[in-house]
Design a protein that fits this description.
This protein has a 7-stranded antiparallel sheet. It folds into 2 domains: 3-90, no CATH class; 94-206, no CATH class. Helix 1 (3-32) packs antiparallel against helix 2 (34-71) and helix 2 (34-71) packs antiparallel against helix 3 (75-89). It is of the alpha+beta class. It has helices at residues 3-32, 34-71, 75-89, 92-117, and strands at residues 123-124, 130-134, 148-152, 158-164, 170-175, 191-198, 201-206. The chain is elongated and about 80 Å long.
């Protein structure tokens, strides 16, 4: 192998590694920080942003495959394949929800205590069944999509959003004062997933 070929291979290796690391980290970041990113870009733009990131990753993955086939440089391809397997198999959402729940549990419990003991500003919806309650500034981080919680006047259940989509598409943590599991039609949506987090607390997803 000539000196020129060695130098070219070194450049291709460095470029391939840089692009594979960048695209892989970017792809994994869109999953690891998806709730914050959805809030930043809005639910309308997020599918487009995520699609662009995934397309970029696929392009780099294919380039890494071609680089391996023509030069036997394998590291960029290995990086992309490892990232793709982690993207597909690692339970990012479960881990993120677990961390979010336990990290913000004390603040959410303080919100519940305030709702039970202090006068609150309530904005009823048109059905009169649930109410939108804007949280004080110091507690807005415990409910995404605007810092509001939903109060179900029939049961006293309170919903803290982890994702606030369009119309009845949402997910979040529900506090149930009686400990009763949320019902399928609570909060104006159709609950597809209900998971108990601890006594009186549940995670729900509706669409």
């Amino acid at each position: 192998m000539t000196k020129g070929n060695v130098e070219l291979k070194r450049i291709l290796y460095a470029a391939g590694l840089a692009f594979s690391l960048f695209s892989s980290l970017l792809l994994l970041a869109t999953v690891a920080f998806q709730w914050s990113l959805i809030e930043l870009f809005t639910p309308f733009l997020w599918p487009f942003v995520h699609g662009v990131v995934f397309l970029l990753f696929i392009i780099v993955l294919l380039a890494g495959l071609l680089l391996f086939l023509f030069t036997r440089i394998r590291t960029p391809l290995i990086v992309c394949v490892a990232a793709l397997l982690m993207y597909a198999l690692f339970p990012f959402t479960t881990v993120i929800l677990y961390v979010d729940f336990h990290r913000n549990l004390a603040d959410r419990e303080q919100v519940i205590q305030q709702l039970e003991t202090k006068p609150i500003l309530i904005q009823p919806d048109t059905s009169g069944v649930q109410a939108v309650i804007p949280l004080p500034l110091e507690y807005k981080h415990v409910s995404r999509g605007g810092g509001d919680v939903l109060l179900d006047s029939r049961s006293g259940k309170v919903l803290f959003f982890t994702f606030r989509g369009v119309v009845d598409n949402f997910s979040g943590f529900v506090y149930s004062p009686s400990g009763q599991e949320p019902q399928a039609d609570d909060f104006g949506g159709t609950l597809r997933e209900i998971e108990r987090m601890k006594e009186n607390w549940y995670w729900v997803r509706a669409d």
